[in-house]
Specification:
globular, alpha/beta, single chain, two-stranded antiparallel sheet, 11 helices
Length: 287
């Protein structure tokens, strides 16, 4: 009594089925970010920034699915292919023009973003993680590289200059934008305080000074992705806009208690733990 369709391979059939929605989703501006650490913070910052700039944006990632506010929790960093397409269609139905999405290495290998082309691809870093699945760092980097083959012809890729396996992500066919101590966007004059970070960016002979309410060098790098995307989209007053952005809960949350500061952070990889400890050392007193 139940209509049944016999197919050779259910996953392959599903991929072709969801791809039929490409036409309906083609006007969505898709930003995909991969990397070992920093995906959630950066994507959540981008989600806030684009909405505040007047571009209605949805977020899909570790902390859930967000439209104007959180819609629901997600059990994986990047959900299954059917869930992703349902969320994209819901975002479009709710008037979103932009979607920012965390894209994990598992998702890329398992074709969870099959059929999607991205206007922007971002890589944060490549450090030791998920080797139970990928076996070698080279395989891990190759998995993340798959996102950069999905950049649209008029899209762009954002890559930090200090990243290991950098050549994996600077594909010839993409418009590559680099940042760091060198690169197209050069960061200098870094000052880390207990409640903010200050830095200067040189780009195309222009020098801009920024202040953000996030602490640490790695958060400056996270915010650079936001600055670059906003500038590429022609959004003005970037410095003022990013000053109001907040990290997601549990990411470098600083709580003042009497004369002390308590810090809560999600860090769980060796690189992430090292980053936060080095960051705190810059403004801690004593141990």
């Amino acid at each position: 009594s139940v209509e049944t369709l016999i197919v050779h391979d259910t996953k392959e059939y599903l991929k072709k089925y969801v791809e039929s929605y490409k036409e309906e989703l083609k006007d969505l501006f898709l930003i995909g970010m991969t990397g070992t650490n920093g995906k959630t913070t950066t994507c959540y910052l981008l989600y806030q920034a684009l909405n505040q700039s007047g571009k209605k944006c949805a977020y899909i990632g570790t902390i859930g699915f967000f439209l104007e506010e959180k819609v629901k929790d997600i059990h994986n960093t990047t959900p299954g292919i059917l869930d992703i397409y349902e969320m994209l269609l819901e975002a479009k139905k709710n008037g979103c023009t932009h979607v920012v999405m965390e894209v994990s290495s598992h998702a890329l290998v398992q074709d969870r973003v099959y059929g999607l082309d991205f206007d922007v691809a971002i890589i944060s870093n490549i450090t030791r993680d998920h080797l139970d699945y990928h076996k070698t760092m080279e395989d891990y980097a190759t998995a993340k590289q798959k996102l950069f083959y999905r950049v649209k012809e008029n899209g762009f890729a954002i890559i930090p200059t200090n990243i290991e396996y950098r050549s994996y992500f600077e594909l010839e066919q993409n418009q590559n934008i680099t940042y760091g101590e060198d690169g197209e966007y050069q960061i200098s004059s870094i000052q880390i305080e207990s409640d903010k970070s200050l830095f200067t960016v040189t780009h195309n002979d222009t020098i801009e000074s920024y202040e953000i309410k996030l602490v640490g060098l790695y958060n400056i790098y996270n915010m650079m992705n936001v600055i670059i995307v906003l500038e590429k989209l022609g959004i003005s007053d970037v410095g003022e806009l990013i000053l109001s952005l907040k990290p997601p809960k549990g990411r470098m949350d600083i709580i003042s208690y009497e004369e002390n500061k308590i810090i809560i952070d999600y860090a769980h990889t060796p690189d992430a733990v090292e980053n936060i400890l080095n960051c705190v050392k810059q403004f801690s007193q004593g141990k």
